């Protein structure tokens, strides 16, 4: 791969997924795109770049999906789900006692383990949510991972990663060497393809937004832009949950951290966020890395 080809791919990926590669990541591109090129019957990276420059939309999608990270597992990192069960939902249940509805957005739903983990948490709350309208929206860049999430079928290895055995027995049915999450939980979640770099106002407002292990791949201006737009989609008393390596501190005043609760944030005055202009150069094409 020539330096010119690498620079083209760096810019292509940033414009189309938000992925901000440093100058020394040629090995990463080669390891992920050479197999894709061969599968497409191309001679290598040079011909792949030529096809991209020629406007091959199918190849554009395949390249972005090949470069995005879909690492995820059930109840990943544990702490956010403890916050959800012990702090977020008790406050939401109290605050929405009259409305009796809750809307949750998993902004990088990947193959479904995060939204299904939340669905299991909600089911475990039992009578406290009887009669409530519960809506979980799970979005991701990759149509391929969304299809897997909709099916809710996982290998033995996948269900062994973070999923308590009692929940496996309670919420999954085994078929041969795979496990499928039950229809009731699958029906709780709407899976949609979405680009975080695009306008997502059509999703409406949410009580809780999980946006974990996604923004680490973006440059600072893009992070700020997304935070400011997330602030417009969250209820004034809602919650934002970020990954352990992510923070709003030093980037935006649209959210404030909750003391002693790592990764958990509350929105500041949404009118102030709405008044801020979006930063230039942060609204291209397709969503991004599933982190979850």
UniProtKB/TrEMBL annotation:
S-adenosyl-L-methionine binds at residues 70, 72, 76, 114, 140, 195-196, 212-213. Residues 1-256 form the CheR-type methyltransferase domain. It comes from the Bacteria. It catalyses: L-glutamyl-[protein] + S-adenosyl-L-methionine = [protein]-L-glutamate 5-O-methyl ester + S-adenosyl-L-homocysteine. It is an enzyme of class 2 (transferase). InterPro entries: Bact_Chemotaxis_MeTrfase, Chemotaxis_MeTrfase_CheR, CheR_C, CheR_MeTrfase, CheR_N, CheR_N_sf, SAM-dependent_MTases_sf. This is Chemotaxis protein methyltransferase. It comes from Bradyrhizobium sacchari. The lineage of its organism: Bacteria, Pseudomonadati, Pseudomonadota, Alphaproteobacteria, Hyphomicrobiales.
């Amino acid at each position: 791969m020539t330096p010119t080809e690498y620079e083209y791919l760096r810019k292509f990926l940033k414009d189309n997924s938000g992925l901000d590669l440093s100058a020394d990541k040629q090995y990463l591109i080669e390891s992920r795109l050479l197999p894709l090129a061969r599968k497409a019957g191309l001679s290598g990276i040079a011909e792949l770049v030529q096809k991209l420059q020629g406007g091959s939309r199918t190849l554009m999608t395949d390249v972005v999906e090949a470069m995005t990270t879909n690492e995820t597992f059930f109840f990943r990192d544990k702490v956010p789900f403890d916050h959800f069960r012990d702090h977020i939902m008790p406050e939401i249940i109290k605050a929405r006692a009259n409305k009796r509805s809750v809307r949750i957005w998993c902004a990088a739903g990947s193959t479904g383990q995060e939204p299904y983990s939340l669905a299991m948490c909600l089911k475990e709350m039992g009578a406290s949510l009887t009669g409530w309208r519960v809506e979980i929206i799970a979005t991701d860049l990759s149509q391929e991972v969304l299809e897997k999430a909709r099916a809710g079928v996982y290998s033995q290895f996948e269900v062994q990663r973070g999923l308590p055995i009692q929940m496996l027995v309670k919420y999954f049915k085994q078929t041969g060497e795979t496990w499928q999450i039950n229809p009731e939980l699958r029906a709780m979640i709407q899976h949609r393809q979405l680009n975080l770099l695009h306008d997502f106002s059509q999703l409406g407002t949410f009580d809780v937004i999980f946006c974990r292990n996604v923004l680490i791949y973006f440059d600072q201006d893009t992070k700020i832009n997304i935070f400011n737009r997330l602030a417009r989609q969250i209820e004034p008393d809602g919650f934002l949950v970020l990954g352990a390596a992510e923070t709003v501190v030093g980037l935006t005043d649209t959210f404030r951290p909750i003391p002693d609760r790592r990764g958990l944030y509350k929105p500041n005055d949404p009118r102030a966020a709405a008044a801020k202009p979006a930063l230039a150069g942060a609204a291209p094409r397709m969503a991004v890395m599933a982190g979850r």
